[in-house]
Amino acid sequence: MGPAVWTTFHGRLKKVRWLFLALAFAVSCYTWMHNHKSRYIGPELVLPGSSCQEGNCVVVLRDSSSRRQASKGQCGTGSAECSIPIHGVSDEWSLTAWVRLENNLDDLLDTTAISFGPVSLKYAAPAVPYVALEAAWPEIRRTFKYKQGFRANCADLAIGSSQTASLNDALLKCAQLPGCTVITRNVQDHVTYFCQGAYSIEARDSAWDSAVMSESPPSKDYAGAVAVKSWSYLALTYESGLLLFYVNGVLHQRLDISLPAKYTRVDVGWSPRWFEGLFPGDVGNIRVWRRKLQPNEVAMSISSELPASDHVLNVTPSALWTAPVAIKSGWTSLASSNQPSNCAASVVVPFLDRTPVHQLRILASHLQQHAGNSCQVSVFLVACTRQDFDNAGFDGLGQAVVLQPSAKLQWDACIRYGFQQALTWDSEIPYIAVVAGSLLPLPGWLLGLVSDFQQHTGVSAVFSKTLFVNGTIKSFGSRFEQMYDDYLARQVVRPVEMYEGYPWNYGPTMKTVAVQAAGCSAWLMRSSGVTELLEDGGFSLGLGSYLACSDMALRLQQAGRAVLVSPLSSFIDTATRARQEDPAALQAFEQTWSYILKAQYVSALALNATATWVMHCGGFAGIEAFNLVQHLEGKLRLRAQIQRGWPFCEHPDVLQDMPLTFSERVYRLRRLSAYLPSDIVIHHKDYRQLAAWPWPPNNSSAYLIGRYSWDMDRIHRQWADQVKLELDEVWVPSNWHATSLQQQGIQVNKIFVVPESVDSHLYDPDIWDPLTLPRQRKLSFLTSFCMDDHAGWQAVLVAYLKAFRNHTDVSLYMHTATFPQRVYRRDLVYEAMHTFLHSSKDTYLQSVSLYQGHTNDAPHVHVFGQQLTQLELARIYSSVDVVVVPSRSEGWDAPYMKAMSLGKPLIASIWGGLAEYIQSDFAFLLNYTITPVHSLDDWVRGANWAQPSVDGLVTAFRTSYGSQNLCAMGQKARWKIVEDHDIEVVSNMILERLKTISESRKSESHNAKPLDMAKDPIPVDVHMCSLLPKASVRLSQVMPALKIAVLSTAPPRRCGIATFNSALVEYLQPLLPQGSSVEVFPLVWDTELPALGGTDPTQRRIRQENYNDYVSTARAINGEGFHAAILQHEFGIWGGADGSLIVCFAKMLEVPVVTVIHTLSDNLWDSHQYILQHLAASSKAVVVMSESSRNKLGAFHGIPSDNVIVLPHGAPVMSAVNPVAVKAMLNLTGRTVLMTNGLINPMKGIDLVLRALPAIVEEFPSVMYLIVGEPHPDCGKPCADYLEELVAAASDHRIADHIRFVTQFLDNGLLLQYVQAADIYVLPYKERITTNSGTLTMALAAGKAVVSTPFDHAALVLTGRGVLVDFDSPLSLQDGILGLLRDDSLRKKYQRAAREFSLGRDWRSVAGEYATLLANITASH
C-alpha cells in the first residue's frame, strides 16, 4: 500500500473508530446488564398492583417455583452454594463464620454470604459486610419513595436504560437489577434510566418521574470495609428482638427487629433473592449456637478461647486453615511474661438496678472461667436495690455468692458493704477486685491485674482497661483538669478520661501507666489495702461511680501509694446509657477535694500565663490545634475559642469520626471562662478573623500570636500589614516561610519557626487494617487534593497515564476534597478530568476514558465516590503502596505527613516548606520550574509557584514501580515523623516559647492595639453598623416614673419571643413606679398582614427590613422622654444581613439599652460574631437566662460578664389543681398522659416518641400522648409536611388509640390545663443548642416529671430533677419514659424537685427583677 493510499485509509479509519467504539460499548452494556456477576433462573414473579400516588411504591417479588433453592447441595459435598439443615434454634441464637471475598465488589454488586431465616449476612461495594432483613422471607419487598414530576441526575451512576411499559415495570426491573437504587422514567417515550444512585432529584420536569429505593445497601463505606482475599470473622447474635452484628469482634450494626420463632436451615453462599449475584468468595467454620453470645464471647471465639461445646453445628463448606490467622482488628489479650504467684481474689459486683438473674449468672460465670491460668475467683453479687434473689439460681457457679443488705444502698455504700462482706467471708484472700455489673471480661483479666501488681512496687490499686462494644476505649485512666460545671456555675477541677473513643490498640494505652485517677469500672487491690482504705473513710461520701474512685485514688496518693492502669486486663462495657451526674455528689466531692485539687493544678503549671487558642473547628489546622492542646492542657491556663463547635463546625468531614476525647477536650476548653483577661492569644485560623475575638471589639491588649501557613512564595500586602502592625509575633512551619516574611519587610525578631505536627500514635500502621480498594492491582498509588489549580492534579494524571500505558497491574486512587459548602459530585470530577484530557494534543490522552467498565489501554484510575473522613483515609493510606501529591504550591502538606506516619513512601516535589521534612531516603523527588501564578484571585496575584515536571513524574512513577525498597523507605518516613513532628515534640517546643513570652511580659507594658475588621469578608451592613459610633447616652432628670420602650415581635405574630415579651410587659407595667409607662414597638415583616380587629391603629411598628423605620423609631425614643429601651434579640427577627440592623439601632439610641439574648448559639458565623459583640458593647446591660449562658457568652464569644445579668425565663403563675379534675375536663379520665407542646417543626423530635410508643403502650395501655401545637408559622411547608408525616405515623394500629393531636395555638388558660393534666412532659428535641425553652420552664413550674434530650437548657436544669435521654434515640426515650411509669416514687421525686426549682421563677418575680434592673440603670444617668 502506497503512502497516499495509507494516509487516506488512516483518515477514514479515524472517522469510523468512534462508531466501532460506540457499537462495542453498546454491546458490552447489553451483555453486562444481563450477565454481569448475576445468574438468573427464570422466576415466576408476582407484582401486585400498587399505587404510587401517596409517596411510596412497594414491589413484591416471589419465586413460586423455588427452582434455585431445590438445586442447592448439602455443605461439605463440594458445592459452592449449599444449605445446612438445623434443629433446636428458636428465640435466642448466635451464628459465627469465617468469610473471605475473592474479589473486591464493584460499585453495583450487593451479594449474600449466609442467609439464616429472614436474616441475610451480605456484602456491598467496596467490601462492606452488613445485615439485611426480608420482611416476609422468601417473599421480597422493596419500597421506593415516589417523586412524581422530578428528574433524577444520575450521570456516571447510571447502570443502563431501556423502555418500560409502566412505572411498575420499571420498579420491578430495578428491584431485580443488582446495584439499582434509583429509576428516572420519561412518561412520554417510556425510556427509563436505572442508576446505582443519584446526585440530585430536585429538577422539576413534568415529563419525568423518579423513584428511590428506601433500603439501599451501605456501599462506599470505606471505614466499614474489610480486606479482600483475607479472612474476616463475622458474628450475629439475636435475643428478645435485638440483632447484633460483629466484624472481627467489633460491634458493627444493631437492629431492633421481630423474627419468626424457628428456622430450619442455613443457606451458605447464596440468597433466596434468586436475582442476586452469587457470592464471590468462601465461607468456612460456621457455628450456630442455641444462645446469644455475649460481646466478650464473640471476641474470645475468634481465637477459640471460647469452648464450642454448646453449639449446634460446625461445618466447613469450603477449605479453611488449620489454625486461624491473627486479625489485627480483633481484640486480643496481652499475655503476661511472668506467671504471678497466689493469683486469687474475691470479686465484688455491685448491682443497683433490677438486673435479670441470667445476666448475673453470665457475669459471675465469665469472671470465674476467664480469670486466667491457675487464678481462683470468688464472686460476690451485691444486690443493693433490695432485688429478691435466690442463691439456688446460681447453683453450679462455684464460689458465686449473692449478698443482700438489709436496706437499699447507694453506690458507695454498696461497695463498702461488699468489701466488708468479702473480707469477713475470707480474711486470707490476697486480693479483692470490684467489677461493674455492665462489664464482661476478656481472657486473663485477673492474671493481668495480679501480674502488674506484683511487677511494680508501691502500688495500691490496678485498674483494668475498659472498651466499648465497638472496639474503642472507654476508660484507660483519668487526669484532673479544669472545667466549667453547669450545676455549680463555676470552674472546678475534675477527672476526665484521657483516651475515650480511641482505637483499642492506640499506642499510649498498650503499656502499664501510673494515673491520677480512673473510672469505677474494674480494679484490684490487696485485701490489706482495702482495710486501710475503709478505715480512712473511703467510699463513705456518697459520690457515685463517677467520682468515688477519684476519691479513692486521691486518698491512696496522699498516702504515697500509686494507682496503675493495666492493658493486660481488659473488659467490654455493655452499658448503652451514659451516666447522669448527681448534683449532691458533685458538691460533696468539691467540698472534700477542691482546695487540694486546685493547689495541685496550680503546682503542675509550667507557667502562670493564661493563653487562648483561637482555632478552626476542623480542617488540618483545626486537627493540629486539637492535638497540640492535648499535650498543653494542664501545663498552662489554657482556653480554646472556636466559632462553631462540633457537630456544626466548618469541616464536619474532619471531626465526625474522630475519637470522643478529641472533641470533648476542646469543648471543655471552650466552656472555660475565656472572658478572663488572656495574657496570650494564639490565632490559629484565617488571618482575616483576628478582629472577631478580642474585647472590647476591634482592640486587644493581649500578646497576639498568628499561627499561619501559606503556599506561595509571598503573602499579599493586607496579610503582611497585619503581621507588621497588629501581631506581636508570628509562628510559621518552616524556614522557607520565615524567609518569605523577611523578604517582605517583617522584623526577624517577630518570626518563629514552629513545625506542623501529626499524632503518630493515631496514624500508626500497626493499628489500622488495610483493605482492598476497588479493582486494586499489584502496585497502587494514592493522591489526595482539592480540585483546584494549586494541586497539580493534571500533572499527576498525565504522568501516570503515560508512565503505565498498556500496564494492567497498577492503580491510581484519587480523593478530591471539596469545600464544605459544595456538594461532592464525582460526576463533576470525572467531567473535569475528561475535559482536561480531551483538550490535550496527545491522541493517546484524548482517547482515554476514566469511567469504569470502559476498555482501553489506559491503566486503572479510580475516583472515590464521596469525600472521605479522616479515619477512612487512614485505612486507605494503609492500603496503598505510594502516596503522591506533587502540588504547584504547598507550604506544608497534611496528606504527606499522615502518609509518612503510616509508613508510606512519597512522590514529592520539595518546593516550599516541604524541603524541610521530605528527604530522598523515603521519597522519589521531582524537578520543578518556578512559574508565575496566572489567576484572577487577589490572594495570589503576582506570586510564584512550582510547576512539577511531568517527565520527572513519569520517571518517579516508573522508578517506584521497579523499587524493591518501598517498605524500608516507608519505615524511614515514619521515623522522621516520630522524631521531629509528633504532636508531643511540637507541643513541648511551643510550651518553651510560651514560657519565654510569659517571662518577658512581666517586665514590659503592653498597650491595646486597634484591629482592622474591614479585611474580614462579611456583609457591608454588618461592617457599617459595627463601625457606627455609639451615640452618647443623655442625662435624664431623676424622677420616680419611668418611660420604657420595648422592641420585640408581638401578637398576633406567633412565636416564642412574642409570647415571652407579652408576658414580661404584662407583669412589668404594674411593678414600675406610679405614672410609668411601657410602649411596645413591634417588629413586623415588611409584608405582614394586619390582624382583623383588636389592633391599635396608632401603634408604631418597625418593618423588619426598612432602615428608615429604625432611624425614625430611634429619633422618637431619643426625643420623647424615654428613659430606657429593652431589645429582645434573636437573629431572625431583626433586619439587615444576619440581623445586623439591631446594632445600628442600639448605637443610635441616647438612652440606656437592655438587650435580652434569647438564643445563644454555640456556633456563630463571622457576621453573627461581630453583631453579638458590638451589640453587647452598645448595651448598658445584657440579660441572659442562666449562669451557663453567661459563661457561654464569654467562653464562646469573647464577651466579658461585667454588664451581663442573669434573669431566668418566667413561668405562668400556677395554682394547685386536681389532675383528675383537669383530665375529666379534657376527656382524659383514666389515662396516663404524656405531653409535648410547642410550635411543631422537624427538630421537635415528636417522630422519635411515636417510634418509642408501641413498647410503652404495650406495657401501659392507659397511656395517651398529647401533641399540642400547630406547625411553626415561620417554617412554612417543611413544618406542614412534618405534621402530615406525624399524623400518618400515628395511624399505626398499635398506637392509633393512644395519640391525640391538638393542632392549634391555644390561649394561655387552655394550654395550662393541658400541661396540668400531663403526668410526664416529653421534650425529645433534636436541636442541641436551645438555651431557653419556654415549654420546659412551664412544665417545671407545673411540677411535672420531665423526660428530655440534653439540649442546653434541659441539661442545665434537669440534672437531678428529671430524666435526660440520648439524642435521636427512640430506644433511649422509651427507656426513660418507662422508667418513670414503672417507678411512682421516682416520678414524685422529680415532681417535687421541679416545683422547688421553679420557686421565684414565676413571671411576677422575674418582672420584679427587670424593674429593679431598669431602676438601677436609669438612676446612674
TrEMBL record:
InterPro entries reported in the protein's UniProt record: ConA-like_dom_sf
Protein name: Glycosyltransferase
Native organism: Volvox africanus
Lineage: Eukaryota, Viridiplantae, Chlorophyta, core chlorophytes, Chlorophyceae
